[in-house]
Amino acid sequence: MEVKQTDHVVLGIMAHADAGKTTLTEAILYETGAIRSFGRVDHKDCFLDNDDMERSRGITIFSKQAQFELEAYNGAGQERKRYCCTLVDTPGHVDFTPEMERAMSVMDAAVLVVSGTDGVQGHTETIWRLLARYQIPVVLFLNKMDRDTLGRHELLKQMRGRLSEQIVDFSGAGAYGEAVNNNKNEKDRETSGNDEILEEISLCDEELMEHFLEEDYSREDWISAVRKLFAERKIFPCFTGSALQRQGVGALLAGLSGLMPDCRYPMEGAFSGRVYKILHDAQGERLTFFKVTGGSLKVKDVVSYGEPLKEEKINQLRLYHGGRFQTVSQAVPGMICAASGLSQTRPGDGLGADRTECVYDTEPVLTAAAMVPEDCDEKKLLGLFRLLEEEEPALKVYRDDQLKEIQVHIMGPIQLEILKYQFETRFGLKQEFGPCRILYKETISGKVVGSGHYEPLRHYAEAHLLMEPLPAGSGIRTDNVCSTDVLDLNFQRLILTHVTEREHRGVLTGAPVTDVKFTLLTGRSHLKHTEGGDFREAVYRAVRHGLMQAREKGEAVLLEPWYEFTLTVPSGDIGRAMSDIQKRNGHFEPFELDGEMAVLKGDGPAACFMDYPMEIAAYTGGRGNIQFIMSGYRPCHNAEEVIEASGYRPEQDLANPAGSVFCSHGAGYVVPWQEAAAKMHCDLPDTLT
Predict the structure, then answer these.
(1) 273-310 as b/e, with b when 16 or more CB fall inside 10 Å?
(2) Measuring CA to CA, which residue among 663, 649, 657, 652 is closest to residue 537?
(3) What is the DSSP letter of 572?
(4) CA spacing 20 to 30 A to 11: which of 137, 345, 470, 576?
């Protein structure tokens, strides 16, 4: 039968730490002939974990890609095709979740690895939610099943309870796996095991249930139906085995070859792509990793991206396979490439015809101050952090002018260790950090109108914004009710751009503002004197003016991050655990017994639980553990204490003024925020006056 190569697809692989993801990646590449030898984590010779820090720690830190081919089964008598797969290996440690999420934005399907010795972990649930957010079809692989495990049926029950009821055990899918793997015999070879699997599959779809009961579907019909359900995320096939022993890997690949969704990106038309990673190679070359989602791209083509729109020429296109790459002259749909020549791209940017921007969910909850090394000045250090921030945008590096220190946002202490390693190996600097601190946020609990006026000599802009609280986790949103009779549309758009172009600092601790809706009410420009940047000044002052009013009314709210947790301790220690949680301002549900262990689920402020894992290990003799999932921000449990400790004085924050600038007798003068509203030039809508 003829085999025709037609599609490029991106397959992600992910797991919680120590589930065996890297070993499974190695096994997949070895079984498909993409690598010649089978490496091991403990031997420090894995193909994709080629960074010295990854090999020494035995964990994946940076997402990487490799190429392998997978022959697909399209039905009896039909032409078969070979998928050219880009396998994207992602970090499993919770500190590197942002790196994993960015890679998800370019995946066509994913393999989620669950350890047979540990079962579903807290981070597994985080990964599952992110996969749902990006609507990625998922195959599960129960790994380490050669050991003394919880048992396949118990693990499946746990996964269905904590992940999805539509997880179907494919580990005994004899005829299905055989058919999609090599199609040697076109005659049905149904077994009782397959009947059981078909019944499970049919429970996921009413139409399939009818066909199952009527027994009117052929094997080809079932294969086609399963592919459709998989692509629509209505079924999640699960395979079992041991990656280290390479058991079950062949069955997983056979299943993937029959499940792989058709990635029908348009071959013709304008080029479009999606950026998911920025790196600098050993020579300092800036590389933009992207997926082609339409058309094609050639070397020396000019690519547009960003806001405001930028256009730059592609100097080189690279196709990476582990630490090696080959240059290609053209990138086609479905392909993951690295391009040189693009100087200002960011993860999440759309390229070419794709003008959308991907906004990521995962964000750090900790911050740390960077100490300035003796052999480096602050300006140079800030520049180096900016370079790392290009590669890891979640760092959100900034200089705190009040504290006179460089701050970086981090997910956890392991990430700090990696930053130290990067500074030493890449820049030759011994970089140290202060203690980790909680990253707070601020919002408002009532409506206010923020007004900003900027009118030094030969400048003019005024903006009025209605600020309203939004539900937790909403972020910043904008709306516009301003009439074009009052203010030109281009200025209205400019105002809303200035609202969202940066993080605004709150007035309680200087923390970022979130969960606020800004509605442009009205504004004013001057035909002669309004210049670029005037509305930026007016908008920033309007936002600050509104926040100061909220504080005066007692409606400024400090938010802190909360964790959901799963705490496992010996049953004899459950009383101590419940008492600890209450002391730490947490809540919990009734505990469950699992053999000699007790399992307690609940939530609490991240600040109260930062040091608790070490305490659990101490009082349980190392038998207890706790798994955290970030559950969002809530009002701070000790707001007054945190506000006082921050020492933040909004009136002294000269970089974020709340007052407005007016003009009198040819000179500008500053009006304090308390008096500014009375001097504004615009008339507010009647409902707000």
Answers:
(1) bbbbbbbeeeeeebbbbbbbbbbbbebebebebbeeee
(2) 657
(3) G
(4) 345
Rounded average pLDDT over 274-289: 95
Provide the mean pLDDT of the chain.
89
pLDDT grade for 215, boundaries at 50, 70 and 90:
confident
User: What percent of the chain shows pLDDT beyond 70?
Assistant: 93
Q: Does residue 308 have a cis bond before it (omega within 30 degrees)?
A: yes
Residue 277 token pair: 């990673």
Alpha-carbon span 40 to 47, nearest angstrom: 9
Please check whether residue 440 is in contact with residue 560, taking contact to mean a CB–CB distance below 8 angstroms.
yes
Residue of 466, 543, 469 lying closest to 502 (CA atoms): 543
Judged by DSSP in three states, 501 sits in: coil
CA distance 394 to 100: 12
pLDDT reading at 432 higher than 90: yes
547, 449 contact by CB (below 8 A)? no
In whole angstroms, give the CA distance from residue 543 to residue 452. Answer: 8
Give the residue among 143, 165, 322, 346 at the shortest CA–CA distance from 239: 143
Which residues on neighbouring strands pair with residue 467, listed in sequence order? 448, 518
Q: Cα–chain-centroid distance for residue 596? A: 37
Q: What is the mean pLDDT of residues 120-135?
A: 92
Helix, strand, coil percentages, rounded to 5, for the chain: 30, 30, 40
- Using DSSP's 3-state secondary structure scheme, residue 607 falls into helix
pLDDT higher than threshold 70 for residue 192? no
Q: Which amino acid is at 75?
A: G
Return d(Cα 472, Cα 516) in angstroms, integer.
9
Three-class HEC string of 319-355 = EEECCEEEEECEECCCCEEEEECCCCCCCCCEEECCC
Q: Quick one: pLDDT at residue 187?
A: 35
Residues 514 and 524: their CA atoms lie apart, in Å, by 27
The DSSP letter of residue 373 is: P
Query: Tokens standing for 98?
Result: 């942002």
Q: Tell me how crowded residue 50 is: count the other CB atoms within 10 A of its CB.
A: 15
DSSP labels, 86-113: EEEE---SGGGHHHHHHHHTT-SEEEEE
Residues in the chain: 689
AA letter at 1:
M
Residue 30 sits at the vertex; the CA angle it makes with 24 and 36, to the nearest 5 degrees, is 140
Tokens of 473: 């986790």
Q: For the chain, state the CA radius of gyration.
A: 28
Strands 80-89 and 3-15: parallel
Separation between Cα atoms, residue 627 and residue 448, nearest integer Å = 40
Give every CB contact of residue 331 below 8 A, 6+ residues apart in sequence: 273, 292, 296, 297, 298, 317, 337, 339
pLDDT of res. 2: 43
Q: How confident is residue 74, by pLDDT bands cut at 50, 70 and 90? A: low
**C-alpha dihedral, 508 to 512 to 515 to 516, nearest 10°:** 70
134-161 pLDDT, tens per residue?
999 999 999 999 885 678 888 999 999 9
Q: What is the pTM of this model?
A: 0.86
Q: Phi/psi at 672 (nearest 5 deg)? A: -55, 155
Q: Which amino acid is at 262?
A: D
